[in-house]
Amino acid sequence: MNEYQDITIGFLGYGNMAQAIAQGLLYKEVLKPEQIYACAKNWDKLCRNTQDQGMHACRDARETVSRSQIVVIAVKPYMVKEVMEPVRDLLQDKIILSVADGYPFDALEELLPGTHHISSIPNTPVAVGEGIFICEEQHSLTEDEFSLLTGLLSRISLVQVLDSAHVSAAGTISGCGPAFASMFLEALGDAGVTHGLSRQMAYALASQMIAGTGKLHLMSGKHPGAMKDSVCSPGGTTIVGVAALERGGLRAAVLDAVDAVECKKNKK
Ligand SMILES: NC(=O)C1=CN([C@@H]2O[C@H](COP(=O)(O)OP(=O)(O)OC[C@H]3O[C@@H](n4cnc5c(N)ncnc54)[C@H](OP(=O)(O)O)[C@@H]3O)[C@@H](O)[C@H]2O)C=CC1
Ligand SMILES: O=C(O)[C@@H]1CCC=N1
């Protein structure tokens, strides 16, 4: 028996992040399509993205909330107030999961006092069950609701519960990280093509290399520097590439990228 067979989940906003979560839940067979509801701005696009796979398109947020036990706030942060205010009276018995980056517990509590909510930052690899959900430690779910929700999310992601002060930085590494990693992947693809590989082959090799390197670190616990050293033979080929990356400022660029994101978030 599937422990989530009676759950319904509704997405307020059905863009990149909501679709990734829904896809992950379907891919991992945690939910069936008919357990998933969503609303968005563009009705035709919403229908294409939901009904073709057997999910329910809802006309508005009120319909979505009414039909869902778990309500996922998946609009852009600046839209949260506008979307949530008209459904406030329907939220009393719901588990509210915000995925809006920069919408922590305090902001949601001010907007939706007395409701059961938790703020999180997921990432797009949830679509293939390999994601991360950074969840804020401070929330207003009951113990049962928290365990039901995190149980569900853990089927498609690593669920990391963090204190409020560290949610932002963690969310930047894991939530924005897929964009940064994809740039590295794309660059390796270009490099492969420069040297005669087909783009498809270059991307396939680079993707598996990135996934495998991450897994090697997770499973061995080896320091990333030691992992790098173990590839570089003295006087060999890899060290020449490593030196080129250092001259190109790879590490500094990565540090600057995370600083830039955090700086933008803190200006809000
Ligand atoms: N993308 C990512 O990797 C991550 C995103 N997030 C967070 O997820 C949230 C959504 O981001 P993302 O999915 O990328 O953004 P998208 O722009 O892809 O999706 C936003 C969705 O909101 C819908 N929308 C706009 N206005 C309304 C409205 N009035 N009522 C209902 N729905 C509406 C849009 O509808 P339509 O499509 O019809 O225009 C769209 O489906 C953000 O708060 C972001 O911070 C967090 C972590 C990672
Ligand atoms: O760029 C954004 O706004 C969202 C938040 C985290 C990842 N993407």
UniProtKB/TrEMBL annotation:
Pathways per UniProt: Amino-acid biosynthesis; L-proline biosynthesis; L-proline from L-glutamate 5-semialdehyde: step 1/1
Pfam families (UniProt xref): F420_oxidored (PF03807), P5CR_dimer (PF14748)
Keyword Plastid: no
UniProt-listed Enzyme Commission number(s): 1.5.1.2
Gene3D superfamilies assigned: NAD(P)-binding Rossmann-like Domain (3.40.50.720), ProC C-terminal domain-like (1.10.3730.10)
Binding site for NADP(+): 12-17, 74-77
Compartments, record wording: Cytoplasm
Domain Pyrroline-5-carboxylate reductase catalytic N-terminal: from-to ranges: 8-101
Domain Pyrroline-5-carboxylate reductase dimerisation: 166-264
Membership in a protein family: Belongs to the pyrroline-5-carboxylate reductase family.
Function: Catalyzes the reduction of 1-pyrroline-5-carboxylate (PCA) to L-proline.
Name the UniProt record assigns to this protein: Pyrroline-5-carboxylate reductase
Source organism of the structure: Lactonifactor longoviformis DSM 17459
Highest classification ranks of the organism: Bacteria, Bacillati, Bacillota, Clostridia, Eubacteriales
